[in-house]
Amino acid sequence: MSESPSVCIMIPVYNQERFIAKAIESALRQDYSNIEIIIADDNSTDSTAAIIANFLGKPSITYKRNGVNLGRVANYRKCLYEYAKADWVINLDADDYFTNDQYISQAMQAIKKNGVDKTLFYQGVNIIKSDRFEKLNEPNIKSGEAVITAGDFFLNYFKRNYFSHMSTLYHRTSAMASDFYSRDVISSDIFSLLQLCINNSNKDVIVSKNISGVWYQHSGNISKSLNLKKHLNNLRLYAQLSSLAKLKGYSKWQILNWLAKAGFIYIRSYLYSFVRTKN
What is the 3-state secondary structure (H, E, C) of 188-204? Predict the structure, then answer.
């Protein structure tokens, strides 16, 4: 019997002494057999490294510390391209944590059932939690799990209107070939995934209501920024994706329709966040 495909849980961290232990503990509880956990410390200046040291006797854990601070997205990329060696990768930011100990096993079971060579990524859901609220970040799908093409995922992304970085188990070499984490913007993760879909439109994507864990929202989240310049840079990525889609053969109507939805939903979300913060 052949060995199960390997999976890497990447835990990028920078000055997350409040959260890092919970993230590591949740990764260690995953029951999938062929797993590695790589902690990529972006030169933290608080007690993050000291807390991580308590876990370094575990055989599944590898600790890497950058000599200088690279920044959030560059640390993602370094971990994916230089540290991870597994067949499949999932990114767990240090302030988030898994609540489903079988999540990776369940995701890999679905991937193997569909066909490892046919599947680009598995996309589950997460619970969004802050000190004031808690809600389920759930996709608009009819069943508990659906297999669609990557092209469908891209074209109907704003119809389903959900994304969970910590719930996305993706094929590592396909992501690297698609230049993952190459844009240092707020939504680098979403941009990378949608670019991956455009570049592999005939591959399968598994969309599921399976819950991975908690995306903890706090004032330090980059997604909470209301800096207009950062959001304009972020919005420009959608235009870049539409240009790539045109090169890959998507019709003019499909691209214009997608771009209109992207702009409308993005601007609406930004204005809502702006008003809520000011009030």
Answer: HHHHHHHHHHHHCCCCE
**Contact criterion met (CB below 8 Å) for 132 and 216:** no
The burial of 182, by beta-carbon neighbours within 10 Å (0-12 exposed, 13-18 middle, 19 or more buried), is given as: middle
Residues 8-41: pLDDT tens digits? 999 999 999 999 999 999 999 999 999 999 999 9
38 strand-pairing partners: 10, 62
Judged against a pLDDT cut of 80, whether residue 257 lies above it is answered with yes
Average pLDDT, the chain: 88
How many separate domains does the chain show?
A: 2
CATH code for position 79? 3.90.550.10
54-62: average pLDDT: 95
Same domain, 192 and 235: no
Report d(CA 147, CA 211) in Å as an integer.
17
Residue 172 neighbours by CB distance under 10 Å: 20
Find the domain containing 257 and state its range: 228-278
| pLDDT > 50? residue 278 | no
In a domain, 2, yes or no: no
**Is residue 1 assigned to a domain?**
no
| Same domain as 160, residue 233 | no
Instruction: Report the C-alpha gap between 95 and 188 in whole angstroms.
Output: 18
* Same domain? 177 vs 248: no
* Cα separation, 170 vs 21, whole angstroms: 24
Angle at 191 between CA 48 and CA 175, to 5 degrees: 75
Task: Look at residues 201, 219, 237 and tell me which one is the last residue of a structural domain.
Answer: 219
